[in-house]
């Protein structure tokens, strides 16, 4: 059971990781540490595939990295010169074990393992066409659609990289991929560059591909650069080469919520440190929505950086207002019928000495339904705060996301039903201010990215809108007459 406080948050789909070495070594452990650093991107399931001279050995299961990959499991994966890994939070398909990644495909020309971060916008149409041609699907994720498209092309073309290249002409949407063949490791990013992907190199010559640079740091790899939007990078025994046929074919549309919430603060994405971007969000909030207050506090974790920025710009002292229980993850199970308020208290507790008798500015990264914000504001008031002024380091969510976050409708978005003043009253705040939509593009100062996707805030989608976008769009129900619905 997911805690109510976590179901209120926006979740990202997953993180990908790959390693290429020139000789057989303990690549499984390298992937393990890399996935550990990317755990924040997905906590439903994880997997690792090790390539030992063309023989693939894989293991995946539901749960977090530390629980799934015990010492015995890692030992069982053995040594190899390549490996790919994945952590998942499902935005398309259910959260069963079959939907965990990487996906392994055996075909007439060999094997392929694929790990994917993002969502396609034409996956339903592609899957329907593939099924009519006789393809049989074993999962309800669009990652399997990508694997089929690449495999179809691989059967007809001379190399795995060319198969990926051809498949990219047909798939549309957000995808950062790590693909492994018996002899090559491939990194590919969609032409819009929705999701991050980078690579680096260790002192002993191993190449590392990861969703975020923090995972490179975790395995001792030096960051080289981000994979360009539309770029395909091939790692093999001959070195590195790139295919840039898709580069520049679409406008840059990096998901700005990577900076606001998804990524780890110590990561650098497109040349901009995530912590710095969040501090910048707080500074912009202070300029747009000043408050007459005594202290600024942040809601852990991503609200802390923005709180520092708000304090710095406003001159109001910064304080540590909450203690977060680090031992409760997203899958915290409540024994018995404990109230939702108790779950919030167990996970997050205010420091009364910091807020008692004071006018408080409380910074958080987002408001989705408003239920958790309401409870957190109540915690601060119960701890003795005289006033609570809430500031949010993102604009209001008013639109679904089709590119890898779990907002698939407007139904539960409080900002679609209420004004800012009404939301402030609902959550019990004395005042409420959101980051201005026009300030979103100002967060990542110094970034190499030339454009951002903020469609969940402004409704301006960089791609076509999918005909079917529900999280369970590939799941079919059987009616009483035996027909698929």
What key phrases describe this protein's structure?
single chain; 485 residues; alpha+beta; Rossmann fold; seven-stranded antiparallel β-sheet; 16 helices; 23 strands; disordered N terminus
Structure, explained:
This protein is of the alpha+beta class and 485 residues long. It contains 16 helices and 23 strands. The protein folds into two domains: 250 residues, 4-Layer Sandwich (Glutamine Phosphoribosylpyrophosphate, subunit 1, domain 1); 177 residues, Rossmann fold (3-Layer(aba) Sandwich), CATH 3.40.50. The strands form six sheets. A seven-stranded antiparallel β-sheet has the order 3-2-4-1-10-9-11. The chain has a six-stranded antiparallel β-sheet with strand order 5-6-7-8-12-13, covered by helices on one side. The protein has a four-stranded parallel β-sheet with strand order 17-20-21-22, with helices on both faces. Helix 6 crosses helix 7 and helix 10 crosses helix 11. The two termini are 28 Å apart.
């Amino acid at each position: 059971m997911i805690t109510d406080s976590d179901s209120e948050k926006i979740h990202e789909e997953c993180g990908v990781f790959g390693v290429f070495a020139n000789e057989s070594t303990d690549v499984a452990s390298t992937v393990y540490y890399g996935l550990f650093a990317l755990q924040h991107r997905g906590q439903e399931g994880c997997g690792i595939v090790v390539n030992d001279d063309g023989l693939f050995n894989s293991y995946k299961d539901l749960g977090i990295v530390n629980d799934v990959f015990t010492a015995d499991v890692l030992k069982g994966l053995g040594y190899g010169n390549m490996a790919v890994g994945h952590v998942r939070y499902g935005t398309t398909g259910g959260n069963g074990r079959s939907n965990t990644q990487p996906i392994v495909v055996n075909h007439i020309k060999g094997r392929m393992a694929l790990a994917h971060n993002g969502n396609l916008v034409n996956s339903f149409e592609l899957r329907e066409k593939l099924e009519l041609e006789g393809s049989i699907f074993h999962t309800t994720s669009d990652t399997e659609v990508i694997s089929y498209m690449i495999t179809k092309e691989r059967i007809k073309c001379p190399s795995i990289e060319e198969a990926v290249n051809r498949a990219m002409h047909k798939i549309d949407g957000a995808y950062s991929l790590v693909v492994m063949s018996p002899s090559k490791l491939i990194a590919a990013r969609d032409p819009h560059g929705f999701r991050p992907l980078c690579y680096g190199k260790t002192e002993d010559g191993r190449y590392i591909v990861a969703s975020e640079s923090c995972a490179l740091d975790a395995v001792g790899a030096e960051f080289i650069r981000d994979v360009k939007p539309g770029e395909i990078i091939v790692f093999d025994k001959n070195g590195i080469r790139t295919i840039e046929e898709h580069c520049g074919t679409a406008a840059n549309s990096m998901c700005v919520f990577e900076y606001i919430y998804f990524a780890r603060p110590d990561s650098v994405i497109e040349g901009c440190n995530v912590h710095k971007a969040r501090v910048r969000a707080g500074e912009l909030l202070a300029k747009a929505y000043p408050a007459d207050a005594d202290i600024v506090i942040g809601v852990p974790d991503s609200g802390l950086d923005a709180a520092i920025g708000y304090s710095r710009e406003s001159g109001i002292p910064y304080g540590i207002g909450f203690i977060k229980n680090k031992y409760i993850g997203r899958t915290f199970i409540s024994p018995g019928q404990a109230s939702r308020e108790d779950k919030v208290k167990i996970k997050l507790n205010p420091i009364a000495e910091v807020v008692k008798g004071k006018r408080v500015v409380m910074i958080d990264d987002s408001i989705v339904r408003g239920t958790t914000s309401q409870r957190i504001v109540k915690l601060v008031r119960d701890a003795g705060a005289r006033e609570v002024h809430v500031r949010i380091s993102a604009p209001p969510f008013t639109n679904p996301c089709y590119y890898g976050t779990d907002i698939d409708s407007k139904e539960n978005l409080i900002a679609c039903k209420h004004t800012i003043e009404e939301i402030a009253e609902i959550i019990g705040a004395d005042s409420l201010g959101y980051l201005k939509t026009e300030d979103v593009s100002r967060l990542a100062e110094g970034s190499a990215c030339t454009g951002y996707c903020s469609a969940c805030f402004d409704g301006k989608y960089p791609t076509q809108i999918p005909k079917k976008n529900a999280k369970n769009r590939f799941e079919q129900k059987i009616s009483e007459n035996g027909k698929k619905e």
